[in-house]
Amino acid sequence: MADDHALLRDGVASFIANTSDIVVVGEAENGTQAIEMYRHLLPDILLLDLQMPVLGGLDVIETLLREFPEARIIVLTTYHGDVQAMRAMRAGARGYLLKSGLRRDLGDAIRQVHGGRRVIHPEIASAMAEGAIDDALSPRECQVLKLAASGNANRQIAHLLGVTEETVKTHMRSILSKLDAKDRTHAVTIALRRGIIEL
Predict the structure, then answer these.
(1) What CA–CA distance (Å, rounded) separates 195 from 145?
(2) CB neighbours of 191 closer than 8 A, spacing ≥ 6?
């Protein structure tokens, strides 16, 4: 398992120690270490946090699956966002679980993924289904929204992106429409919750 929080690793290891059919063979505290240990240990399952120092979880997934196409990776996260989950699943993760539900879900999820199935926390699966019918923000709209989230006014965003202020306003109108947001603050809140942008 790979997570930068020792307390979480200890909790998972303690939980797994009480199962008869699952064993923790190694622990990593950053993304680079996770890749090195995976290469050395070749575990059946990798439990992986997305928010890792040195190398992020998505990069770990992509790197490992290039080398080990059959790698089975379960993402453990605190993020409820459907966009973040979609990115992880598209990158090749086989499971996506919330850390808050590990005591209840982890053992069964490991067994299911080991058996070749995919596992997504029901709350996340529901959010992904709802998000799938929404219009996705374009890369430029994500840039505009991220700059707005950092406290920049339209004029500043225009200057930073080398476009006119009217272009920024057009992007912002499109963002509000796509996210069904009342204003830019609401749009930022929705985008952070769904994992569309990160600060």
Answers:
(1) 12
(2) 137, 142, 145, 149, 179, 197
Q: Identify each DSSP E strand in the chain by its residue range.
A: 46-49, 73-77, 95-98, 119-120
Single pTM value for the model: 0.71
Per the structure, the complete domain to which residue 154 belongs is given by 139-194
Distance of CA 84 to the CA centre of its chain: 4
Is residue 133 scored above 60 in pLDDT? no
For the stretch 57-98, pLDDT in tens is: 999 999 999 999 999 999 998 876 777 788 888 899 999 998
> What burial letters (b/e) apply to 18-56, b meaning 16+ CB within 10 Å?
eeeebeeeebbbbbbbbbebbeeeebebbbbbbebeebe
CATH number at residue 164: 1.10.10.10
Note whether 130 and 88 are within 8 A (CB): no
Q: Say how far apart CA 23 and CA 51 lie, in whole Å.
A: 24
